[in-house]
Structures are given as C-alpha cells and as structure tokens.
C-alpha cells in the first residue's frame, strides 16, 4: 500500500507520473493507493472549490498545466495533456457548464485569469483522468479527513501506520507526506498583538490564507491598518469590497468607478516597499520559450561552490543581476534599437567584463540608453520609493497613483518588451537556483535569508503579481476613499488601546481599531501545527535544518530535511527508505505549486518522475500477499502511539547517492 498524506496538486502530479511509469515498473501484484486529506483531492486546501468565486489565480490560463510536454527532461514517458486554457475550450466546457460556469467558459480566452473555482475543477478533472489511466490492478481510495499519526510499526522501516482522525488505520509499505504549506503556531509578536487586541476590544487578523480567515470582525466604516501589499492584500481587498456587495463600473475612458455596498471598512495599506506588486504582463513576446542563461549558469554556480557552497550575497547575487541586466538590454537593442546608441555586441562585451551594478557600467548605460525609463536599475526596481519623502499623505497618495497608473500602462505596452525579457530571465534564474539548492551549492542559512527571503520577495514583486484588473480596482477604491496608502517601511504599535501606524517617508500617524497582517505565515516547520509533522519531529523521525547566521543568531524558517531522492531524513541524519517528503516545507523539493508553465521543463515534473519511478520499484520489491492494504481499527486498550524500536543499520544521509531502501526492503522481505 502507498499512502499520500495530502491531496493537493503536488500529489496529483506525482500520481500522474506513477500512472505514466506504470506500464514498465508497476508490480505484477498491482498497487493500493490511499490519499488522506480533509479537502477534495485535486485542489486540496488552497485550490478547493468552496471559496469565493471572486478569487482568481494570478497566472493566465495558458501558463498553467498539470501535464508533461516535450520540454520536460525525465526518464519516464511524456504523457501530454491540456493546459488550463485548452481544457476550458475542450473537455472542461461541459464540466464548467454543469458547475454553473458555462457563460464564463464561453467567453474565456487563453490570456484570461481563471477563478480558483475554475482551477479547482481543472485539478479535479486531472485527478479523475489520472486515476482512470491506471491499470485495473491499481486501486485508488480517498479519505476526506485528516491524518493524525504516521509511524513505523516494525524495526526494519518496512511498514508504517497512518492513523486517521476517526481512529481508522492504514498499514502502508510506502508513505508520501505532501501536506503543502503548513500552518504554524503564532509568533511571539503575533501572540502579543492578539493579547493586546483582546484587551482593548480591537480586531487583529494574523498572517494566514485569506480565503480561510473570518473577516467579519472588520466592521463597516472601520479604519483598518493593513501590513502587506502583495497577493494576500489583493484577496483581502476583493473580499471586503466586492465580496460585500460593492461593484465596479467602467468609465468611458476604460478606468473604473466603485459603487459601495455600504458594508465596507476603510483600508490603510503599507509594506516594506510601500507599493503593490507589479501587475501581470498583458502581452507576449514573439517567443516565450526559456532562453538559456549567459552568466548565471549551473556551471558558473558549480565553479563558485567548488569547495562547498557559494555566498549568495557576494557571489550569486551579482551574477543574477548581470543575467537580468543582459536580458533587459539584449531585448532593448534587438527590438527597440531606435532607443539605443551603438551596437549590442559592444555593449555586451562591456557588460561581460564589468560589475552590472557598478559606476563604470552605469556610465556606459547612460551613453548607450538616453532615456532613463529604458534603463535597468536593480536597486530602483526593487525599492521604487527608497530615499523618497513626502510632505503629507496627499503627496504620498499622488505618487502612489502615478506609480500604479504607470505600471498598468507599461505592463500592457509591447514597446516596453524589455520587461518581458526580464520576466522570462527570472524564470530561468529560478530554474538554476532550484538546481543549486538541490545540489547543496547554497547554504541553508543563505537559502532562507536571501533566496526564500529577499530574492523570492523580488520575484513575487516583479513576476508574480495580480492581474492588471486588480490594480485598476485598487485605483477605483482609492478614488472612492476606501483604500488609503500608509507608506513604505510601515511600522505598527499599540498605544492607548489603538493600533498606530507610521512610515518614515511621510509625517503623521494612522490610528485604527483593526490590524490585518496580509501575508502568508513565515515558514518554520519547528512551529508547525500539523499533528503528523509535529509528532514525527518530537520523535526524531524527521529533522529540521538548524539555521544560524554567522554570529549565531537563530534565523528560524527551517525546512524538513530530505535527501536527494526526497526520502525523509531523521534527527540522527539517517534516511527513512520508504517515507518521502515533498512540498514547499521540504529542503530540495522543486515545483511546490504542483502545476507548471508549459514548455519550461518544470522542475516539479522532473522530480516527481524520479520519485514515482523509485516508488514503483520499491513497491515491486515489497509486494507480497499480506496485511498491506488493510484498514483496521485500533485494538481496545492499545496505545495510540507506541514508540517504535530504532534499527541499528540505518543509512546516513551523507551518502553521495543514498538509496538504501532497495537493499533493506529486499533483505527484510
């Protein structure tokens, strides 16, 4: 028996790879697969259908697929399937019609942003298609409840028990933990804010998934401070305005007006940058296929990390900046030569020998690119309000409106196609970074502090922002007086029973009776509230990275440790041969979203294929007619969590290519 704990897109994608490889690797005895998740398999929690239909994906439909294509480099067979846009136009049409979305489907285009409800139906259809593609000897069973315990029941790691919240147990040969983004216990600051809010009769909503948060405590007309200007804020904005009966009406010039429903609060939004994420690009280049990197290549990273790991700040980051700079100017010289002076070849040779952020290269850019609007300035792009101060909030508001209007105009203008080239280059950079992490060429502290912190924030800001329509709605809400801007580097304190927000860029304070931290919880598996993860950690059956800065400061945010084959690593740094870890909370796990962009050799697909092939090989080695596949109730009086004996012959995770499971299981069986 194979048991999945978690039934979201990552599990579905791995199931697809199991089905694709079944023809050559499936055990003769077949395979029983059980999937445990309180939410429907396919969408899981994040993409479940039972959330507001007003919430959208932030990728256009043609950029979402659950299926491999010829770009995917894997050992298993390629089994094409429709991206989201083709599914809507094809097999999804009838499904959407039955779901009451037929009118939406009739006018839907490849460049539209699907609702999460629509995405959920696509993911559910994918799951059904995958299950139907398995041979008859494969049985798939789903359990709509939570798993509460996963533990070994023998001393040879050959059998595991997965206990469900209703007391039933699944006895498994193989377990995949793929719970996705893990909820966590509140931080000290969040706890203090919650206590202060309860004492003062205030409303405080800590970080979380907006669709799961009860927003009823945000009262009509109430002043609400919001920390966070990314996608979580956009969801909040949609739910407390349009979700409370308001509506947007198009003006003659294409802009929007907002008609209030009467139940809206007033949001004062700020963040570290103080500006919203850039809107998604509204056009395509002639070719949107990935371009091989020039400077930030796997070979370059390997050379930097020849003696261990490379420094992100001093070695990797300068190469990333150079790669993005090259992408911008390569496109500018090629497609908009009327705005450049000289040849690309000469410009590129200068870029190759100089620091892309240094003054000597800046002087070359000033001469070759006369219009400052055409130049690539990484620091200015990352922090557009850095160093600016404003006389008052009206001055700040005027600057923010200009910024958002400029962004909307630029992101739909093909004359600014250098922006699109940078977007594509960012995807390539992420591809190289993922490989560097898996290969151990970036240290865990650097990964958390820089890659998952600063770089991921920059990537989200530039490339993973909202649909343009959402920023147009933001401007309409601002004109209606319902969204105000709090400024960059927003700081919030509690004083005299009120929340008080200040920004160093603008004088004055914002006093409010409610505070929303509009962002996802900071990942830290040591604080995970998931009962399976927390119990396995307590028993030493899972291990977490120990992340400390050079001065010894605890960085938090550690991931679960897995080896190169995605096997769980224990606290004693040995490997569990038949327990796999996948998802955003796992070191080295790629493609955490489950789906990928067509034609971009999705890292998650490649990893899933390798894991699926090993699972099938392990299942073949373990197959025998015995208790595997049974579901049983606990025996009366039996301890729910007996402490399993520790085997003495565990395999260290430091092995260069650790696959001990094949030997141990063959021996045990």
TrEMBL record:
One Pfam family per UniProt: NAD_binding_9
Domain of life: Bacteria
Region (Disordered): 625-669
Biased composition (Low complexity): 639-654
Stretches assigned to the FAD-dependent urate hydroxylase HpyO/Asp monooxygenase CreE-like FAD/NAD(P)-binding domain: 3-181
InterPro entries assigned: FAD/NAD-bd_sf, HpyO/CreE_NAD-binding, L-asp_N-monooxygenase_NS-form
Protein name according to UniProt: FAD-NAD(P)-binding
Organism lineage string: Bacteria, Bacillati, Actinomycetota, Actinomycetes, Nakamurellales
């Amino acid at each position: 028996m194979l048991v999945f704990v978690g039934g979201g897109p990552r599990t579905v994608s791995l199931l697809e790879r199991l089905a694709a490889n079944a023809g050559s690797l499936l055990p003769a005895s077949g395979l029983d697969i059980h999937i445990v998740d309180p939410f429907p398999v396919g969408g899981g929690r994040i993409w479940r259908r039972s959330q507001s239909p007003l919430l959208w994906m932030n990728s256009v439909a043609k950029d979402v697929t659950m299926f491999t294509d010829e770009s995917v480099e894997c050992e298993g067979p390629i089994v094409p399937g429709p991206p989201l846009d083709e599914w809507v136009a094809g097999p999804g049409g009838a499904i959407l019609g039955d779901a009451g979305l037929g009118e939406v489907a009739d006018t839907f285009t490849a460049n539209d942003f699907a609702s999460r409800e629509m995405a959920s139906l696509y993911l559910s259809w994918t799951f059904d298609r995958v299950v139907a593609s398995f041979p008859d000897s494969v049985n798939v069973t789903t359990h709509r409840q939570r798993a509460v315990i996963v533990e070994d029941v023998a001393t040879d790691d050959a059998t595991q028990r997965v206990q469900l919240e209703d007391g039933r147990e699944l006895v498994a040969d193989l377990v995949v933990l793929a719970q996705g983004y893990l909820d966590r216990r509140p931080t000290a600051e969040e706890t203090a804010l919650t206590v202060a809010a309860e004492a003062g009769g205030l409303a405080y909503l800590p970080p979380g998934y907006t669709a799961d948060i009860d927003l009823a405590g945000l009262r009509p007309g109430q002043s609400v401070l919001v920390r966070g200007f990314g996608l979580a804020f956009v969801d909040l904005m949609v739910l407390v305005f349009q979700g409370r009966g308001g509506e947007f009406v198009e003006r003659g010039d294409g802009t929007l007006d907002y008609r209030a429903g009467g139940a809206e609060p007033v949001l004062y939004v700020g963040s570290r940058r103080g500006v919203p994420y850039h809107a998604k690009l509204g056009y395509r280049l002639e070719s949107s296929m990935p371009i091989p990197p020039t400077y930030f290549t796997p070979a370059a990273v390997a050379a930097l990390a020849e003696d261990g790991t490379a420094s992100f700040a001093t070695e990797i980051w300068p190469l990333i900046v150079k790669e993005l700079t090259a992408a911008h100017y390569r496109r500018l010289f090629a497609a908009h030569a009327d705005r450049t002076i000289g040849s690309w070849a000469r410009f590129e040779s200068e870029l190759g020998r100089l620091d892309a952020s240094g003054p000597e290269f800046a002087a070359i850019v000033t001469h070759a690119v006369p219009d400052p609007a055409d130049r690539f300035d990484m620091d200015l792009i990352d922090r557009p309000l850095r160093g600016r101060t404003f006389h008052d909030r009206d001055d700040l508001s005027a600057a923010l409106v200009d910024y958002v209007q400029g962004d909307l105009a630029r992101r739909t203008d093909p004359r600014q196609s250098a922006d699109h080239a940078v977007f594509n280059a960012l995807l390539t950079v992420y591809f190289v970074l993922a490989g560097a992490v898996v290969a151990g060429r970036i240290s865990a502290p650097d990964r958390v502090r820089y890659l998952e912190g600063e770089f991921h924030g920059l990537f989200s800001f530039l490339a993973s922002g909202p649909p343009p329509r959402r920023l147009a709605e933001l401007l309409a809400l601002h004109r209606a007086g319902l969204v105000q801007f709090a400024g960059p580097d927003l700081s919030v304190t509690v004083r005299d029973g009120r929340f008080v927000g200040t920004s160093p860029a603008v004088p004055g304070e914002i006093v409010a009776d409610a505070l929303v931290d509009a962002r996802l919880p900071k990942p830290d598996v040591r604080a995970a509230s998931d009962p399976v993860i927390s119990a396995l950690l307590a028993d030493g059956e899972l291990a977490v990275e120990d992340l400390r800065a050079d001065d010894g400061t605890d960085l938090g945010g550690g991931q679960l440790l897995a080896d190169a084959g995605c096997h769980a690593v224990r606290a004693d740094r040995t490997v569990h041969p038949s327990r796999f870890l996948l998802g955003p909370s796992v070191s080295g796990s790629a493609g955490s979203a489950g789906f990928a962009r067509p034609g971009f050799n999705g890292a998650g697909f490649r990893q899933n294929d390798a894991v699926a092939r090993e699972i099938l090989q392990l299942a073949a080695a373990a197959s025998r007619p015995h208790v595997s596949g049974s579901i049983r109730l606990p025996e009366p009086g039996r301890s729910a969590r007996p402490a399993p004996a520790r085997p003495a012959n565990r395999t260290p995770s430091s092995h260069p290519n650790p696959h001990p499971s094949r030997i141990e299981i063959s021996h045990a069986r």
